[in-house]
UniProtKB/TrEMBL annotation:
Protein name in the entry: DUF2938 domain-containing protein
Record's keyword annotation contains Transmembrane helix: yes
Source species: Zhouia amylolytica AD3
Keywords: Membrane, Transmembrane, Transmembrane helix
A Pfam family of this chain: DUF2938
Lineage: Bacteria, Pseudomonadati, Bacteroidota, Flavobacteriia, Flavobacteriales
Residues passing through the membrane, by range: 7-29, 67-85, 97-120, 140-160
């Protein structure tokens, strides 16, 4: 049970780390981040049989899509933390190192590039968006920050439980 709790906390912490990065970009540099209502809208349409959208922005809104999007965002962050623990073993939580966290953080870019963005109607790796290379760079940096958050949170938990 302790292992599940620690892994869950690592996922939550890393996701908060990523959200603080997005908040900093938005507040200091006026760079917008993903509207999690769109994630909720996409997820809300899946049970209705609609996985792909021509443009998720113009798709019919879903009741409580913003809340659903935020819950999904944190659930995904937690899920990736479990992938890290499964991939690198329980020992990683006992003495976290940065490289596995960065590898998992960067690997998570697969989800938006090859699942979410195409399903939103934005193309593979945002290829249909106005500035696809900028979107790709921003996504890559965000997922790198998530990886750093995995490491920082695990290290903090490790320090607090010494």
């Amino acid at each position: 049970m302790e292992l599940i709790l620690k892994t869950t906390l690592v996922g939550i912490g890393a996701t908060i780390f990523m959200d603080l990065y997005a908040l900093t970009l938005r507040n200091l540099f006026k760079i917008p981040s993903l509207n999690y209502a769109l994630l909720g809208r996409w997820l809300g349409h899946i049970p209705k049989g609609k996985f792909y959208h021509l443009n998720i922005i113009t798709s019919t809104p879903i009741n409580k899509e913003l809340a659903l999007g935020w819950i999904a965002h944190y659930s995904i962050g937690i899920g990736f933390a479990f992938i890290l623990r499964h991939t690198y073993g329980e020992a990683w939580l006992s003495d976290p190192t940065i490289l596995p966290a960065i590898i998992i953080g960067l690997t998570t870019i697969i989800a938006p590039f090859f699942i979410m963005q195409p399903a939103f109607g934005f193309g593979v790796a945002g290829s249909k968006l106005p500035q696809p290379n900028l979107v790709r760079l921003k996504s890559l940096l965000t997922h790198l920050i998530y990886g750093l958050g995995l490491y920082a949170t695990a290290k903090l938990i490790w320090l607090l439980t010494l």
